Amino acid sequence: MIKVFKLPDLGEGLTESEIVAWLVAPGDEVTLNQHIADVETAKAVVELPSPFAGVVSVLHQPAGVVVHVGEPIVSFDIGGAAEPIAMAPTDAAIPAAAPAGQREANLVGYGPAVERGGHPQRRARAGGAESAPAAAAPTTASPVPAVTPSAVSTDQPAGAPVSAPLAERPRSTPPVRALARDLGIDLSTVTGTGKDGLITRDDVRAHITESVPTPALHGTHVSPTAAPATSRGDDLRETRTPIKSLRKLTAAAMVQSAFTAPHVTEFLTIDVTPTVELLDSLRSDRQFEGAGIGILTVVAKALCLAVGRTPSVNTRWDEPAGEIVQFHHVNLGIAAATPRGLLVPNIVDADRLDLRGLAAALAELTTAARSGTTTPAALSGGTITITNIGVFGIDAGTPILNPGEAAILAMGAIRSQPWEFRGEVALRKVLTLSLSFDHRLVDGEQGSRFLADIGTILADPARVLTMV
Fold this sequence. Notes:
The protein is an alpha+beta fold. 21% of the residues lie in helices and 23% in strands.
């Protein structure tokens, strides 16, 4: 019996997702919850597990296309079973789309329940021919034609025609595949230097350097990190990249925020020499050895303390309900620049963490964002955000609010500057803070007090004793 698996709503309310890569091909035998594809939502690259145990019959969509929720993506031959195989329920269970009159299958979590690292086993073809082994060199495969939903039946004879098998897929990890896709690199052309030929991020970057033509040959500059696009002519004078996935979502969110919430931005430049000296003392303290506490950690803690004194900055304007939502916890968003674009993962209940806990959470968040393993759940539910533009050498800016939040704080670069100190001019460590807030939720006096509280803590950490 043939069962068609349609693209489910991956729990984010999104209407479409891009198939980054298939990990199976027609004829592959798969197990329940086996990782069969990498799918990129507008927020993250997630692993798509199989809702059935059986044999892959048809891949209805090739890798690299954007598929709408509810469209068929893969069919399975599950033998003579009359119903989909039930899966163990979990808190992360996601309903898979099913036609009317059919029982829905449960798509459990984002990852496979089987052991990773192996390759799917191919079923023997007619005549006893086996598929090529995993170590075989990849070959070019014909694209799989897309099939419209109306052309797909959920119950077809087991002998129904299936598409031709795809080429064996190069070995790599999901973050590496996401990086290659962003850079327009075909992994079948990359030589893996990892264990057993595994393709690493360094392999992808090295391939870029080797494959990018010398700019002088074309009379124009070609950036090695430019995204794949269709050129107009042979001189590569311009490239065009489809607007989709994360970039599309980020653009829509920023436009919505900029033209919905009345933004106000205030600036405060302060002498943070005492905070810098505090950080130096913590690094030399054996109790904090390896804790990784930096200026962002201290600013995050100062913000959480200041929220307690000005709770209006930790609110949301609920237009449909006609209500102002006051949060009694701080889910602190940290804006992160990644190869895929801007992400804002958040630290849940950041206000309950001490400096060591915040430093650990920041390190984990940053590692996940850079490696492309940030989960969709970590990208939602934020209540207030920090963006560290100082790492780019920028002093100040006018940050745009994360949609659904009342305030965002930008911290600039710390610079050694002449500054008034105890009636004289001295060389001090100076930092500029930029606070944007939604004037529907935060009055000017409230925003100013909030920003001043953060500045007071950074200028004199001991003063926090008078604020709690």
